[in-house]
Amino acid sequence: MSHAIYPGSFDPITNGHMSILESGLVSFEKITVAVLNNEKKRPLFSVNERIELTRDAIAARGLDTSRIEVDAFDGLLVDYCRRKSATVILRGLRAVADFEYELQMANMNRHLSGEIVTVFIMANDAYFYVSSNLCKEVCRLGGDVSKLVPTPVDVRLLAKLNEGK
Ligand code: ADP
Fold first, then answer.
1. What is the CB < 6 Å shell around ligand 1?
2. Which of 45, 65, 75, 120 has the most CB within a 10 Å radius?
3. What does the pLDDT profile of the chain (165 residues) look like in tens digits?
């Protein structure tokens, strides 16, 4: 079975991430969305919240949940791929700015594990400039991001940013 790991921070998942996931499902029988457990980087949402939001976004989009797993990971990505018996890492590519970092990571992962390949999908042009960070910043400043993130994320993002106000 073709199984790809789609790793990232997903803090929170955006429509850009969702479009990569949907395109990936055309090519791979199973995709594991692997949410990086990076609490030290002080994400807005905890890893469990990010997993829950990702699951809610997938359900809201009506995607085939029998082919998608949402999981947390830490440590080396290639070790996680081996544990999951997956040989493909799926990543999205946006503007040129992504390219250098992604190339570096793909080469390092190939160096660490020759049997794992990184596959890139070009961002949908509607979401080319969408990032989790930009959505959080715009929402914090009172801007409308409802067209850029899945509805469950929009609702939780507003609630989260209003916490403690
Ligand atoms: P990371 O911290 O690993 O970059 P992100 O959650 O920011 O985690 O991104 C995970 C993956 O999704 C990366 O490959 C990133 O390039 C891709 N991605 C993020 N936003 C978009 C978008 N708007 N369109 C396409 N791909 C995207």
1. 8-10, 14, 16-17, 20, 91-92, 94, 98, 123, 127, 130-132
2. 45
3. 799 999 999 999 999 999 999 999 999 999 999 999 988 889 999 999 999 999 999 999 999 999 999 999 999 999 999 999 999 999 999 988 789 999 999 999 999 999 999 999 999 999 999 999 999 999 999 999 999 999 999 999 999 988 866
48-to-9, 12, 62, 113, 126 alpha-carbon distances in Å: 12, 11, 21, 29, 28
CA of 43 to the centre of ligand 1 (A): 15
162's CB contacts (< 8 A; 6+ apart) are none
Q: Which atom of ligand 1 is nearest to the CA of 13?
A: 6
